[in-house]
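B., you asked whether I could sanity-check this one before it goes into the benchmark set. Here's the sequence:
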Amino acid sequence: MTAPRLDRVSASRPILITGGCGFIGCNLANALAARGERVLVLDNLGREGVRENAHWLKSRHGERIEIQRGDVRDLETVRAAVKRTGAVLHLAGQVAVTTSVDHPIDDFEINTRGTLNVLEAIRCENREAPLVFASTNKVYGRVLGQHQVRREDNRYVPADDCYHRGIGEDFALDFHSPYGCSKGAADQYVRDYARVFGMRTAVIRMSCIYGPRQFGTEDQGWIAHFFLQALRGEPITIYGDGYQVRDALHVDDAVAAWLAVLEAIEPGRGEILNLGGGAANSVSLRELLGLMTQMDRHPPEIRYRAWRPGDQPWYVSDTSALQTRTGWVSRVSLRHGLRSLDEWLASRFALPALAGARS
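And here's what the prediction gave me:
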């Protein structure tokens, strides 16, 4: 990682990453430690794969990374961690729409109350610490309905050409699903704490991030999930018709964007920035299946089910504001990024026979 060090963070004040053993969090922790920063990870270690990610971080960086088991719903735990830090990257959260539908109160407590706890801890204990918050494109709702898209080959495209660059930050908020509500409320709290209290905050509304150390499931991390199902020879379920489009961004590019935003934070600004692969790295579910076949990773049986609440037939991020603000650009092509993900998943999950058979 070539980004400059954070002048505001001394060797005695680590960077706090909540959810730092998750997919994006552990990649951020790894990048920061590799450039010499000290990192404090706060994670409840409750999700699949996070303990393995924690071991990976410690094996690579030793004492440079401290891992503390804790939950952002516990205000005193958060306050104690924030007191020690020079900056906060807040990624801890409930990440699945389906889980939010099944357990909306838990979803609210983790995503909204947990974020408010982080904000209050900074306001009361460490006002100068900058905060970057992981939001989601789901705050925009469905964006376009079925009547606003048309099919071209194996994907949906907007019927109106005004969306050729994607969805910008000025697009109206329209929370669909409890997950959209909980993340959207947190998103707006983070912005408002900058405006009202003059804090250094930024919101990153992320699209589809993928790459190594992602333990994808049907509910979250769909690209990794597709490759994993292919490795295991198990069916893939597509909710909807498979023509829905997302913009995919490799985690290395996402990490570079997060650090660029952290470097550029200004007091009271409360910026909100979209982060995704943009039009150049957009892909439909059906197109991804085709790319997997080209990579000799043949998809297994495909099953189709009804659309889920809040599912978007088309979403592509317009990242021009992020590029203008920080100079960031995505550098990893979709094909190269998929290959890196496939290689990591095969090395981690494939049976020896499967691993030896891949090209």
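One thing to flag: Residues 352-359 have pLDDT under 50 and may be disordered. Otherwise nothing jumped out at me.
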